[in-house]
Specification:
- This protein has about 450 residues and is mainly α.
- The protein has two domains: about 220 residues, no CATH class; about 200 residues, no CATH class.
- About 80% of the residues lie in helices and about 0% in strands.
- Helix 8 packs antiparallel against helix 9.
């Protein structure tokens, strides 16, 4: 990798707000797409092993996501603190936070992995997996866990790089790991050439090896000073007080991600009461939503980083400018995407199912939920501004409170206590986003988060 290329960063403190927001967000959005491809590669090869293998990879993904969420918050917390130190011009503080947090996260990930290995035999029973699915799932998960610490290390390094304004470096490393996984997976799964046929174990091992390779590339770049942030292990010893500050910032982020996952799981259970077609419709509709929201998540990370850096630099007005610019640009994009989904969403659904009832229900879902796109985007940007300032607990309370305390009850009431049926859930989703947006914006306007200390 070219040193100049991986060092390429966006000046979020001095460059024009709208332009810098776009330049920083695009590589992040691209990295989300690459992550999706990562998952699709495994699914493509594994599908050749049968339906049980497909079901196993889906179940395993849920387990890995839960584990990842438990530990990954420390990376988010470290990124928030590093962005503030970077804005303050405190290179030593940013470097020290990066080094301490990376070691702390690796140790925590290793402990979690070890404990989970011990708990693995109980997982199939807890998740009520059919016997054939359980065998495939345990084979795949056992190999994935080999690379779990490396996967979290990569995520942590990416968060640190983005906190300095460098979104290109994580994208480059992700591309390399996806290509490597795509190349070696078929050899290990199907036993091509001199390689043994490992089946699901081969799929998991290929992913783990790709993640390990990504860590080697990322750490080499960091230690060699080829990015905007250098690690320093000279006279290193763990600083418990600094790690606790990182955890205090990161733990609410983990809880926030878990609440989003739990929210979707509960909605799935509500939808399930209305039959298989409704469940399939929600699955397909949610996939469309997640593709539309990729840009929202990318801009959210950009705004969070910009808030931290500009508050550190004492440029409070630029934080508000980033919020306004992000809200305007995302609102325009979400309106365009909402129109596209309204007009062509049915075509996407029909590519995955021929069931007339599922197509009809999924189309109904999309025609209703698109009205929540703008609200979700603006609300998320407001929350990211608050978390970027260091008020992570407040950001978590807004998100978890809105989803679990407002959206879920609303979906239940409209679907189970009225004659709307499953359509009540579809109506409750965008209505919940609207309330989330109003709460987030109202809290942000009060400005109490500006006094958060990091």
């Amino acid at each position: 990798m070219s040193s100049a290329f991986v060092k390429r960063r966006v000046d979020l403190i001095n460059d024009p707000v709208g332009r810098s927001l776009r330049l920083f967000s695009v590589p992040i959005a691209l990295s989300f797409i690459i992550n999706m491809i990562y998952s699709l590669v495994d699914r493509y090869y594994v599908s050749r092993l049968g339906d049980a293998a497909i079901a196993a990879i889906g179940s395993t993904d849920q387990i890995v996501f839960f584990l990842f969420t438990l530990v990954s918050g420390i990376a988010v917390g470290a990124g928030i603190i590093v962005s503030r130190r970077f804005g303050e011009g405190d290179a030593h503080g940013a470097q020290r936070t990066a080094t301490q947090s990376l070691v702390g996260m690796a140790l925590m990930a290793a402990v979690v992995t070890g404990l989970f290995y011990l708990a693995m035999p109980a997982i199939p029973v807890m998740m009520r997996m059919p016997p054939d699915v359980a065998v495939y799932s345990m084979d795949y998960l056992g190999m994935l866990l080999i690379g779990f610490t490396f996967n979290l290390t990569n995520f942590h390094i990416f968060s640190l790089a983005r906190s300095t304004g460098n979104a290109m470096f994580p994208t480059v490393v992700l591309v390399l790991t996806v290509v490597l996984n795509a190349i070696i997976a078929p050899f290990l799964i199907f036993g091509i050439g001199p390689f043994p046929q490992l089946g699901m174990k081969g799929a998991g091992l290929a992913t783990a090896l790709a993640q390990m390779s990504g860590t080697v590339i990322a750490m080499t770049a960091l230690l060699g000073g080829k990015t905007n942030l250098r690690l320093d292990f000279s006279d290193f010893q763990l600083d418990a007080s600094l790690l606790m500050r990182v955890i205090r910032q990161g733990l609410p982020a983990s809880i926030q991600m878990l609440s989003v996952s739990l929210n979707r799981a509960v909605i799935f259970s509500m939808v399930g009461a209305f039959g298989t077609s409704a469940s399939a419709a929600y699955t397909l509709g949610l996939n469309v939503d997640m593709v539309a929201f990729m840009t929202v998540f990318a801009v959210g990370i950009a705004v969070q980083t910009a808030a931290g850096q500009n508050l550190g630099a004492g440029k409070v007005e630029r934080v508000w400018q980033f919020f306004r610019s992000a809200s305007l640009q995302l609102s325009v994009l979400m309106i365009i995407l909402a129109i596209a989904v309204w007009l062509f969403g049915q075509n996407f659904v029909m590519a995955y199912t021929t069931s007339a009832s599922t197509v009809a229900e999924a189309t109904n879902y999309l025609h209703i939920t698109v009205f929540g796109y703008v609200f979700f985007a603006v609300g998320l940007v407001a929350v990211r501004v608050i978390s970027g300032a260091g008020a992570s607990m407040l950001a978590m309370a807004i998100t978890a409170g809105s989803l679990m305390g407002v959206q879920l009850p609303l979906c239940y009431i409209l679907s189970h206590l009225t004659s709307l049926g499953v359509t009540g859930i579809w109506i409750g989703i965008p209505t919940g986003y609207a309330i989330f947006c109003l709460i987030a914006y109202a809290v942000m306007r009060k400005g109490r988060w500006l006094s958060a200390s990091i």
